[in-house]
UniProtKB/TrEMBL annotation, chain A:
Belongs to the calcineurin regulatory subunit family. CHP subfamily. Its main location: membrane. Residues 26-61, 110-145, 151-186 form the EF-hand domain. It is found in: Cell membrane; Cytoplasm; Nucleus. InterPro entries: Calcineurin_B_homologous, EF-hand-dom_pair, EF_Hand_1_Ca_BS, EF_hand_dom. SMART domains: EFh (SM00054). GO terms for cellular component: cytoplasm; nucleus; plasma membrane. Keywords: Calcium, Cell membrane, Cytoplasm, Lipoprotein, Membrane, Metal-binding, Myristate, Nucleus, Phosphoprotein, Protein transport, Repeat, Transport. This is Calcineurin B homologous protein 1 isoform X2. The gene is LOC106611297. One of its GO terms (molecular function) is calcium ion binding. GO terms for biological process: protein transport.
From TrEMBL, chain B:
Residues 408-419 have a biased composition (Basic and acidic residues). This is Glycerol-3-phosphate acyltransferase 3. The chain crosses the membrane at residues 111-129, 135-155. Coiled coil: none annotated. Residues 197-308 form the Phospholipid/glycerol acyltransferase domain. Keywords: Acyltransferase, Endoplasmic reticulum, Lipid biosynthesis, Lipid metabolism, Membrane, Phospholipid biosynthesis, Phospholipid metabolism, Transferase, Transmembrane, Transmembrane helix. Pathway: Glycerolipid metabolism; triacylglycerol biosynthesis; Lipid metabolism; Phospholipid metabolism; CDP-diacylglycerol biosynthesis; CDP-diacylglycerol from sn-glycerol 3-phosphate: step 1/3. One of its GO terms (molecular function) is glycerol-3-phosphate O-acyltransferase activity. It comes from Oncorhynchus mykiss. It is found in: Endoplasmic reticulum membrane. Pfam families: Acyltransferase (PF01553).
Amino acid sequence: MGSRASTLLREEEIEEIKKETGFSHSQITRLYSRFTSLDKGENGTLSREDFQRIPELAINPLGDRIINAFFPEGEDQVNFRGFMRTLAHFRPIEDNEKNKDPTASEPLNSRSNKLLFAFRLYDLDRDDKISRDELLQVLRMMVGVNISDEQLGSIADRTIQEADQNGDNSISFNEFIKVLEKVDVEQKMSIRFLH
Amino acid sequence: FERHFSIIFNVLHLKISDYATHSVIYLCCSSLLFPGLIQREGGSMEQEMGELRRYRTQSISRGEFALSDSFYFYRKGLESIVDDQVTQRFSSEELVSWNLLTRTNHNFHYISLRLTIIWGLGVIIRYCVLFPLRITLAIIGISWLVIGTTLVGFLPNRRVKNWLSELVHLMCYRICARGLSATIQYHNKNNKPQKGGICVANHTSPIDIVILANDGCYAMVGQSHSGLMGVIQRSMVRSCPHVWFERSEMRDRHAVTSRLRAHVAAKRNLPILIFPEGTCINNTSVMMFKKGSFEIGGTIYPVAIKYDPRFGDAFWNSAKYNMVSYLLRMMTSWAIVVNVWYLPPMTRQEGEDATKFANRVKSAIAHQGGLLDMAWDGSLKRDKVKEEFKEHQQKMYSSMVVGTKARNSQEPHTESTKS
């Protein structure tokens, strides 16, 4: 009479994921059920098609970018660990975490890691700079066919001009952080998980 | 006698189910099921964008795009990956308390010896006592349907034939319902569908037909099958008109509509039974109604069907189970407990198109049955979502970017280098 979902996920794995991502035990098992329900091929990994089967994600203008974020460089499948690691970026920041372990590495859901996640969704070629072209690509995805190339170009130019401080006509990660320093990233880039 | 037995049985079952729930809570099982995995926050796109852009101290006329705009889409996207409203409708509902059926046991771990013993007893009762009884009844029911309708078909006289045909149909469906241990409660019988009308209902499983036909006679609409189903269909048609389509005919919408219209126009024909969702949904929500049924004309009699999930999961997940294994599962559940509400008849109003009318009927059914009213199409079970929805989102967002562009065109641009 054991539960079918948990028997495939060993206790040690749950502990490791807990340490790495900060999710609680029950959240991990529930997310594992979700993972298996998305995994139509039942091979323990998700492919891009599995994500695209979610209608609400398919109609999201930036859906493809988000799906990409789950897959490591050049790979087509993501396992449960990778799935959780990406989801961990959207875990809300809790106050008591700051006291836990000052020597441990920064948790995945810290403010700067959340911003790094968003930065990487713009910076496709991973050169640590958002170039004009990369910005235009994302803009184009968000507005579809409703805005002309010229208008979009000038919007992109304006945005880079505002953010750029060292004059290289692109936005580095530090410039990105500076522009968004007043945005409530903790709230806007977090999902409220129920225990 | 059977009525009393089923009442006692139901009461007993509820008591056991409550006990199981309490012992679970008492033992603080960490994987108690909750209705949702996340709490969705945030308002409309406009609201969220407004909040995200609040930090901008520059005037709005300098362009409405902010790097943080994309955060809205990221969060929405991640929320839908964790828990989305649509794909969960195509699999069985998760229950808050366990009803001693392994098939609804998703996240429960092994709890206690007592519970296992009770569960074991339940298995014995269900498989060894209830199941053989039900199978016998089902076989009797179906064979009587075939034999009875064929016999009635030989009669020439109109009135006697109709009366006899109704009798035969009702009897068979009642036997079949007993074969599933179905306890049906009909509400508002005064709104029952009349001859020459169209009855629409939400669809959870093929058993819906048995449930509705227990209380009245309907003309069925559907595809003609081969094999056992085909035999049943052909014999049913002998005693009173049903509408069976060949597979090729179904694709031609006009042919379908005109045939149904002809059936409805003949006022003496039985009301047609249609399930406008087009596919089985898991009884927690009502998905988009296909407008085809609402273009036929005539009076629509909406019916809401709600199964009680504590006694058995009635949803037919056609991707996971075929018809036979589904029926076997039904016959080894505790019982099927259903509430059927007959809603007052509706007709299409002046200037209302078929889609609006369909949505109006859908809301009424969802409201009565306590189901979620959803605009998503049930065919998303198998098909991809239409591009239009994404384009709609893009259009909404563009209007937020372009918003004050009219003002901007007067400002001189000094930086307009195109690389």
